[in-house]
């Protein structure tokens, strides 16, 4: 069997919680379109080079797999949450003009200008959470004290959802994104509860509109007659609630761990806080734990990638973290350079399905760094880096805890 015929089992193991798999460099150099086997036993193709990943993600013909196609299953017997099985039951259109219309309607609420207007409130919330963490004593789990609650408060405020329901959101989100933790029945029950909750929330917004995003979308739909359907509103609310806190909560923990594992990085931010903006994007690029399987695309027609024709019906896994380490795109890619600019990383995807909330995520990450540098300059990891543990089974990469002292 030649190198190009080898089957790589996903997920690829790593030597440490913050380290990339050594296999990525070999794959980029020798087998950029690799055959992979999933925990389900199904197979697909894995892209590891920057240009290949970007080109496929930017191709408007292809979208995420669903249960209606014959795509490779991630989990055995279709187990796992909706994001693993493709059984979304969401009404958000995936392709074409309907998808672009939906992005225009929602995207105008996530512009950089709007996010700047939210920064003061985010900073106040972050300061309060850090003060509470300090009062509780050290060591503390930064992820639990700050990384998880801050994005929940922000997205709840944005959507007009009660922040006191955050533990329920966390459970539903985990059930949506986890591959191994829940049974099929538990996943279905959590999904049904989530749908009912969001249905009730939308009904409450119709009865008493506020200034939140859901209320604004409802008003537009009623005024224009061509706005979102009830099903689209439901799917939008659920999708934003999951995406708006789970990914950012995990990224906050990973970013701080990356900066503290090499103390010189943290010291550099203390000496020059103007580096925070570029440091955030570099953390997003440098993160070797973006997700268990990367972003998936289902090919609906034969497609040429890097000189290889992949047939229609192929499920392709785009390794964003590997693409972000591609030496053909980034100088010294295995170095965390806090001044790196430009930084065209693919952490938020590319093309018609690029993350709508990237301005929100960047703003939250910047606020976290600004506030921590100001309030806790002596912050350090409370455990050796190799004792940090990755979250297992979650499609979105993260660390279980980030123990810190100050």
Walk me through the structure:
- By secondary structure, this protein is α+β, with helices and mostly antiparallel strands.
- The protein has helices at 23-30, 50-58, 82-85, 96-107, 112-136, 142-147, 149-159, 166-177, 184-207, 213-224, 230-261, 263-271, 276-286, 320-323, 358-375; strands spanning 7-9, 33-37, 43-47, 140-141, 295-298, 303-305, 308-310, 315-318, 380-381, 403-405.
- It has a five-stranded mixed beta sheet, with helices on one face. A three-stranded antiparallel beta sheet has the order 4-10-9. Strands 6-7 form a two-stranded antiparallel sheet.
- The termini are far apart.
The largest sheet is: 5 strands, mixed
Helix share of residues?
40-55%
Number of strands: 10
- In terms of DSSP E residues, the strand content is 5-15%
Mean of all residue-level pLDDT scores: 90
From the alpha carbons, calculate the radius of gyration and give it in angstroms: 21 Å
Please outline the helices and strands.
Elements: E1 7-9, H1 23-30, E2 33-37, E3 43-47, H2 50-58, H3 82-85, H4 96-107, H5 112-136, E4 140-141, H6 142-147, H7 149-159, H8 166-177, H9 184-207, H10 213-224, H11 230-261, H12 263-271, H13 276-286, E5 295-298, E6 303-305, E7 308-310, E8 315-318, H14 320-323, H15 358-375, E9 380-381, E10 403-405
Parallel strand pairs: 1-2, 3-8
Antiparallel strand pairs: 2-3, 4-10, 5-8, 6-7, 9-10
Helix pairs in contact: 5-7, 5-15, 7-11, 8-9, 8-11, 9-11, 11-15, 13-15
């Amino acid at each position: 069997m030649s190198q190009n015929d080898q089957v790589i089992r996903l997920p690829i193991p790593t030597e440490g919680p913050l380290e990339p798999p050594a296999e990525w460099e070999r794959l980029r150099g020798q087998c950029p379109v690799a055959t992979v086997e999933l925990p389900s036993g199904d197979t697909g193709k894995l892209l590891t080079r920057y240009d290949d990943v970007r080109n496929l993600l930017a191709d408007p013909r292809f979208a995420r797999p669903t249960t209606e196609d014959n795509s490779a299953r991630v989990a055995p017997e279709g187990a796992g949450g909706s994001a693993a099985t493709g059984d979304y039951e969401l009404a958000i259109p995936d392709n074409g003009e309907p998808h672009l219309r939906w992005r225009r309607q929602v995207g105008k609420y996530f512009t950089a200008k709007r996010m700047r207007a939210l920064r003061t409130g985010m900073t106040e919330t972050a300061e309060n959470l850090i003060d509470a963490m300090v009062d509780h004593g050290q060591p503390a789990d930064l992820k639990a004290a700050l990384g998880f609650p801050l994005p929940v408060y922000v997205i709840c405020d944005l959507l007009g959802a009660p922040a006191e329901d955050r533990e329920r959101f966390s459970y539903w989100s985990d059930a949506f994104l986890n591959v191994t933790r829940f049974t099929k029945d538990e996943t279905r029950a959590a999904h049904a509860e989530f749908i009912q909750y969001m249905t009730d929330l939308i009904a409450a917004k119709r009865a008493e509109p506020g200034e939140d995003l859901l209320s604004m979308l409802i008003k537009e739909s009623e005024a224009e007659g061509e706005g979102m359907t009830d099903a689209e509103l439901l799917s939008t609310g659920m999708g934003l609630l999951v995406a708006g806190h789970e990914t950012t909560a995990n990224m906050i923990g990973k970013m701080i761990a990356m900066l503290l594992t090499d103390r010189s990085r943290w010291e550099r931010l203390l000496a020059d806080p103007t580096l925070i903006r570029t440091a955030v994007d570099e953390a997003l690029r440098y993160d070797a734990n973006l997700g268990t399987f990367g972003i998936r695309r289902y090919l609906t027609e034969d497609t040429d990638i890097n000189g290889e024709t992949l047939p229609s019906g192929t499920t392709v896994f785009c390794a964003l973290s590997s693409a972000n380490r591609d030496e053909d795109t980034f100088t010294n890619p295995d170095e965390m350079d806090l001044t790196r600019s430009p930084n065209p990383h693919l952490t938020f995807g590319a093309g018609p399905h690029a993350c709508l909330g990237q301005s929100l995520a960047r703003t939250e990450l910047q606020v976290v760094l600004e506030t921590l540098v100001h309030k806790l300059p002596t912050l350090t990891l409370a455990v050796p880096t190799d004792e940090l543990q990755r979250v297992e089974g979650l499609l979105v990469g993260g660390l279980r805890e980030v123990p810190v002292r100050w």
